[in-house]
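User: I'm putting together a teaching handout on how sequence relates to shape, and I'd like one worked example. Could you take Protein-tyrosine-phosphatase from Hydrogenophaga laconesensis, show the sequence you're using, and then write out its predicted structure as tokens right after it?

Assistant: Happy to. First the sequence, then the structure tokens directly below it.
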Amino acid sequence: MTKPLNVLFLCTHNSARSILAEATLNHLGQGRFKAFSAGSSPRENQQPNPLAIEVLERAGISTNGLRSKTWDEFGNPDAPHMDLVITVCDNAAGEVCPYWPGQPATAHWGYPDPSDAKGTHEQKLEAFRETLLAIRRRLEFLVSLPPASVDKLALQNTARDLAKR
């Protein structure tokens, strides 16, 4: 087996959308992909949103090891080399990203913030479930690609095309 492709999902606080994407790709990736997530400005003592954890667990996706962290962790010399960096919120997409060693492919997959949902616990949970399903649809396409489609240029083009789905 070749080494997995490392994918970093970015959002502002790294508590909802990027956490959902990280856990889902690690679940679907079958060893071909290794997902990570980070935020441009997580709040002090930021934790993954409890509703994100709940919806992942209800979907049968492991939440072990999920934590909110700053994207600075991935700029360190000992950080894993990223092959693809995907922003999943519009705020992070508009920010100046740090330099990523190796110049990974990049794409933007915007999703509404499920943390903004109002209403009962079940209504808020439904917003997270809808976001999880939207993320999962794109990731299922990504993991179904033949190995030749995930070289650097093809990966970037494919990831950007998936933003249109």
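A couple of points you could highlight for students: Residues 5-152 form a domain with the Rossmann fold fold (CATH 3.40.50.2300). The chain has five helices and four strands.
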